[in-house]
């Protein structure tokens, strides 16, 4: 039985009536979408939105996340005029306070980044903090930053205003209507079934579904067979009684004391991000949950409250009106989930907003709607793309442990290379114990434990985080120099490995990639998957294993996204695509002495004639067998040895034993990053993304427009015709001391023209190196290089050399030697 007022067909069904669902409905209707239906199990905003603090910050960790946050802030400033529903948005500004020298460095680096991203920001002294926020105790304050355009709003009203905007343009919103199931056909949801509180039920046939179900999104995802890794945690704040003559105050963040403060209607709201949070609701969120709160746990938040009373003494002089504890969703990496769910062709996700839902909702809704409209990401959304999540990350035990940390990480020191402490050791290379015994210090990516550097004998194998030269600086240097002058071995088993085989394998890979795939067996092709704009969706090597089979090798972090991209472009091709990542380990043996080392453990011929650069050969190694791929991401002579996981330890032991006579050094991935930047090799997600045109990224050599048609070819031809408007430039600091991490502003003749997309120390070159895009419409290489360049490192402008070619071995002779 269906209620008369709920239609039985829609173009899109949005599940969840929090601020995110309302924003998606608002933006889809703004794009002219009709038949937009939003279903909310209780009342709009009754899950998390209603109790959000409503801080509206603009600066986020990357350029595009900042772009989205800025968009939210601008939207909320004008929404009332359009919808008639006030958002309570006030541009009160925001101050973040540092209590340590490390935090000061972090804030000043963020401040430099803000300048590159076009966000107004001022670095301010303790005295200036006192002027802008007279109630704050300045004891121990080292510095601060002030963002005049930041603000705050009324979360519930922002959601209702967005909802009104959507309904005015025809969206239908049904509250008290719970989604009970989905009808699935292949990789599509064809209908959503619902039940209203008074017992009516029905089904809406639809073209698309958007899961905006907040802390219910993991369960809603399961209805569609989609992985949405998130978990609620308790989030605490208190609200004081009215404080006479408080006046408008900026938002105040004191991350070193895990606290934020917001003035609201003459009261102070103090919110907390404690280091060890309390996950909630994993055994099920009560069906009755609606505008509910959880019992406050005084012991849990007392330490933070004590610090806050010291920092803002008026808290101790004012009564507390409300102790609030409400659940909010957190994700494994503190980034929200947006986009088309892998495995499905019409299930979209916008969920897991990690306590920044209000400030993110406007931008996230806009980006998702545009993505749904175009069928392609409007710009790089890799930070939040749901496809970055690995299947195991939906595991309950993993999530429960991980989110207990990620809540607190919001305000922890964001040191470079900081690793998560929880939920570790889940994906391990078969060499893991060998590496650990040899002093490896691991970092985690996509669940993989990867050796980042090796401690010396007697050195504690642990990170000591710092903004200055870290405790592993000299270790990485020794590893780097071994690769440049001798031979090093590092474990790349975390590479994604995807086998593509079948009668149409060549035709399919020619269609989906820019490289020529009709090559002899054993050839390795470095290439990209492009979108219709010529932007880079994936950066891969593809090895022809046999007449009918290829191996696509992808970065660990993008394996699922790259596999998904291929599956979505199969069309009528007869191919089988299989993830074989776990089947083979990869040992990279690199450096000018790598040939000698391999020759000492293998009867095969590693000469240029037998195994030239860009080819793979089957080899015997020790008493095992493997495949030697002659490629390099560090810019040296070398091989990646692909060996089945059962023989990996044997091959490692063989190489290590033989390596003694060749000065073999075990190396980690910090070395790899420094080496690849010296060599100008791009890294997907940083230097190349879906919004970077392959020609502007300098990778025109890897796409062959003279082959058969391929996806993105027209955009490559068009760009050849119209000319480049931006180019990627490499930089080397003149001063050997400062460190680059990425996101530092690039100055050309004293003006900001871009930011670094990568940065690391180039131990071979003796200074920090980086790369980033600058605008260059109508300019020749000579014009670009005639300027003077510098990089803003935490507010200090450091002169830099610029180059359009790699600083290290521009001819590539070393790799091909
Ligand atoms: N929901 C609290 C947001 C905290 C922040 O913007 O810093």
Helicity, as a percent range: 25-40%
What is the typical, i.e. mean, pLDDT? 97
- In CATH, the topology of the domain at 9-86 and 154-230 and 333-388 is named FAD/NAD(P)-binding domain
Ligands: gamma-amino-butanoic acid
The geometry reads as: globular
Written overview of the protein:
The protein is of the alpha+beta class. Among the domains are: 9-86 and 154-230 and 333-388, FAD/NAD(P)-binding domain (3-Layer(bba) Sandwich), CATH 3.50.50; 94-149 and 232-325, 2-Layer Sandwich (D-Amino Acid Oxidase, Chain A, domain 2), CATH 3.30.9.10; 724-811, Elongation Factor Tu (Ef-tu), domain 3 (Beta Barrel). It has 20 helices and 38 strands. Strands 4, 5, 6, 12, 13, 14, 15, 16 and 17 form a nine-stranded mixed sheet that branches. Strand 29 (616-621) and strand 30 form a beta hairpin. Helix 1 (19-30) packs parallel to helix 5 (155-168), helix 2 (63-83) crosses helix 5 (155-168) and helix 12 packs across helix 17 (669-678). The longest helix has 21 residues, at 63-83. It is globular, with a radius of gyration of 27 Å. Gamma-amino-butanoic acid is lined by residues 52-53, 55, 57, 253, 260, 271, 355-356.
Write the layout of secondary structure elements.
Layout: E1 9-15, H1 19-30, E2 36-39, E3 55-56, H2 63-83, E4 94-98, H3 101-117, E5 122-124, H4 126-132, E6 143-147, E7 151-152, H5 155-168, E8 172-174, E9 177-185, E10 188-196, E11 201-211, H6 217-223, E12 231-240, E13 251-254, E14 259-264, E15 267-272, E16 279-280, H7 298-311, H8 314-317, E17 320-330, E18 337-340, E19 347-351, H9 357-374, H10 396-409, H11 432-437, E20 440-445, E21 448-454, H12 473-485, E22 488-491, E23 496-501, H13 505-512, E24 524-530, E25 536-544, E26 549-554, H14 559-568, E27 576-579, E28 584-590, H15 594-601, E29 616-621, E30 624-629, E31 638-644, H16 645-659, E32 665-666, H17 669-678, H18 713-722, E33 726-733, E34 745-748, E35 751-762, E36 767-775, H19 781-786, E37 789-793, E38 796-803, H20 813-816
Parallel strand pairs: 1-2, 1-11, 2-8, 4-13, 11-19, 22-32
Antiparallel strand pairs: 3-7, 4-6, 5-6, 9-10, 10-11, 12-15, 12-16, 12-17, 13-14, 14-15, 18-19, 20-21, 22-28, 23-26, 23-27, 24-25, 25-26, 28-31, 29-30, 30-31, 33-36, 33-38, 34-35, 34-37, 35-36, 37-38
Helix pairs in contact: 1-5, 1-9, 2-5, 2-9, 12-17, 15-16
The chain binds gamma-amino-butanoic acid.
């Amino acid at each position: 039985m269906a209620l008369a007022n709920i239609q039985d067909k829609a173009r899109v069904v949005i599940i969840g009536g929090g601020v995110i669902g309302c924003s998606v409905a608002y933006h889809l209707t703004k794009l002219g979408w009709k038949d937009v239906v939003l279903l909310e199990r209780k009342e709009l905003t009754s899950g998390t939105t209603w109790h959000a603090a409503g801080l509206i910050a603009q600066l986020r960790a990357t350029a595009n996340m900042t772009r989205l946050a800025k968009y939210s802030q601008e939207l909320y400033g004008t929404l009332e005029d359009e919808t008639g529903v006030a958002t309570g948005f006030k541009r009160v500004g925001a101050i973040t306070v540092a209590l340590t020298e490390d935090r000061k460095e972090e804030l000043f680096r963020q401040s430099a980044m803000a300048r590159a991203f076009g966000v107004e920001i001022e670095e301010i002294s303790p005295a200036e903090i006192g002027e802008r926020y007279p109630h704050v105790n300045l004891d121990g304050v080292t510095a601060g930053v002030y963002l005049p355009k930041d603000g705050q709003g009324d979360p519930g009203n922002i959601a209702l205003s967005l909802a009104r905007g959507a309904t005015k343009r025809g969206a239908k919103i049904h509250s008290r209507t719970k989604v009970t199931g989905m009808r699935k056909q292949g990789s599509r949801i064809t209908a959503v079934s619902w039940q209203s509180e008074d017992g009516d039920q029905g089904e809406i046939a639809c073209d698309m579904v958007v899961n905006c179900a907040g802390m219910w999104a993991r369960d809603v995802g399961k209805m569609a067979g989609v992985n949405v890794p998130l978990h609620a945690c308790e989030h605490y704040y208190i609200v004081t009684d009215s404080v006479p003559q408080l006046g408008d105050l900026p938002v105040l963040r004191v991350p070193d004391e895990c606290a934020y403060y917001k003035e609201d209607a003459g009261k102070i709201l103090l919110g907390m991000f404690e280091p060890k949070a309390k996950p909630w609701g994993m055994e099920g969120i009560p069906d009755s949950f609606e505008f509910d709160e959880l019992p406050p746990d005084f012991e849990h938040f007392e330490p933070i409250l004590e610090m806050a009373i010291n920092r803002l003494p008026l808290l101790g002089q004012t009564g507390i009106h409300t102790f609030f504890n409400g659940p909010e969703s957190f994700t494994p990496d503190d980034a929200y989930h947006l986009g088309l769910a892998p495995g499905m062709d019409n299930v979209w996700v916008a969920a897991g907003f990690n306590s920044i839902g209000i400030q993110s909702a406007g931008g996230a809704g806009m980006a998702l709607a545009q993505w749904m409209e175009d069928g392609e990401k409007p710009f790089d959304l890799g930070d939040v793309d749901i496809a970055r999540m690995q299947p195991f990350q939906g595991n309950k035990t993993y999530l429960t442990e991980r989110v207990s940390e990620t809540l607190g990480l919001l305000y922890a020191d964001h040191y470079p290379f900081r690793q998560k402490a929880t939920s570790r050791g889940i994906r391990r290379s078969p060499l893991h114990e060998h590496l650990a015994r040899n002093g490896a210090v691991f970092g985690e990516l996509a669940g993989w434990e990867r050796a980042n550097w090796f401690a010396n004998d007697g050195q504690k194998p642990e990170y000591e985080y710092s903004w200055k030269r870290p405790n592993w600086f000299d270790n990485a240097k020794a590893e780097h120099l071994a690769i440049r002058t001798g031979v090093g071995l590092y474990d790349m088993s975390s590479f994604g490995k995807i086998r593509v085989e079948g009668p149409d394998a060549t035709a399919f890979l020619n269609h989906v990639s820019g490289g020529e795939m009709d090559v002899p067996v054993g050839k390795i092709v470095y290439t990209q998957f492009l979108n219709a704009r010529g932007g880079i969706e994936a950066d891969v090597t593809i090895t022809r294993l046999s007449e009918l089979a290829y191996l696509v090798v992808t970065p660990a972090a993008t394996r699922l996204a790259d596999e998904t991209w291929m599956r979505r472009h199969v069309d009528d091709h007869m191919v089988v695509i299989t993830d074989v990542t776990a089947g083979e380990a990869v040992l990279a043996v690199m450096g000018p002495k790598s040939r000698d080392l391999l020759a000492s453990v293998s009867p095969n011929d590693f000469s240029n004639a037998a195994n030239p650069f860009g080819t793979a050969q089957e080899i015997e190694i020790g008493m095992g067998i493997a495949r030697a791929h002659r490629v390099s991401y560090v810019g040296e002579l070398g091989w990646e040895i692909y060996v089945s996981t059962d023989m990996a330890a044997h091959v490692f032991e063989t190489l290590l034993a033989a390596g003694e006579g060749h000065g073999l050094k075990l190396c980690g991935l910090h070395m790899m990053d420094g080496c690849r930047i010296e060599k100008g090799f791009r890294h997907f997600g940083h230097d190349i993304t879906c919004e970077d045109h392959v020609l502007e990224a300098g990778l025109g050599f890897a796409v062959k427009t003279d082959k058969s048609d391929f996806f993105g070819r027209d955009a490559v031809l068009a760009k050849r015709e119209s000319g480049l408007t931006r180019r990627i430039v490499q930089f080397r600091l003149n001063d050997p001391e400062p460190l680059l991490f990425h996101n530092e502003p690039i100055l050309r003749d004293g003006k900001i023209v871009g930011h670094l997309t990568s940065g690391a120390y180039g131990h071979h070159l003796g200074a920090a190196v980086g790369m980033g895009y600058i605008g260059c419409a109508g300019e020749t290489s000579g014009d670009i290089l005639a300027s003077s360049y510098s990089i803003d490192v935490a507010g200090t402008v450091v002169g830099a050399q610029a180059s359009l070619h790699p600083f290290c071995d521009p001819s590539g002779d070393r790799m091909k030697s």
